[in-house]
Amino acid sequence: MSESEPNTSDNIHRYNLRVYFEDTDAGGMAYHARYLHWAERARTESLRAIGLPHQFMMERHNALLVVRRIEVEYWRPARLDDLVVVETAILRVTGVQIMLSQTVRAAAEDGGGGERLAGLKVGLVCVGRGSLKPVALPEPWRSVLQGLVVAEATRD
């Protein structure tokens, strides 16, 4: 199972990972805050997979993406040694904001996603690196991300 698998047929990026001991509580279940960590890593890898990593935005445009809002709903726990998949879908891109849906799933035997474990709605905003004030999402990020928008109805 590779770590990061863009899927161009449905515009959903999939990031695979394993639940390690450090991710779990005393009961062997993934600690709730680890889902935020996994989602952050999946967002970073989704940008890298399209050839537009955060580092380029910072170096070339003195701008970065920050989380403005995040909502998490948990359905079932991931457990020690489980393989999970974080699916990232872009729902909307505006002048300075990106809205994402991320779903953490148990990994299915075919390498795809199985049962839903958690769902995240994430609002990102592009800000100036020094000022931290909103700035326009630079090109080519805006155009590329707009081309990857999926209908929310297609998500679980």
Automatic annotation (TrEMBL):
Keywords: Hydrolase. Pfam families: 4HBT. It comes from Neoroseomonas lacus. Belongs to the 4-hydroxybenzoyl-CoA thioesterase family. Residues 27-107 form the Thioesterase domain. It comes from the Bacteria. The keyword Hydrolase applies. This is Acyl-CoA thioesterase YbgC. GO terms for molecular function: fatty acyl-CoA hydrolase activity.
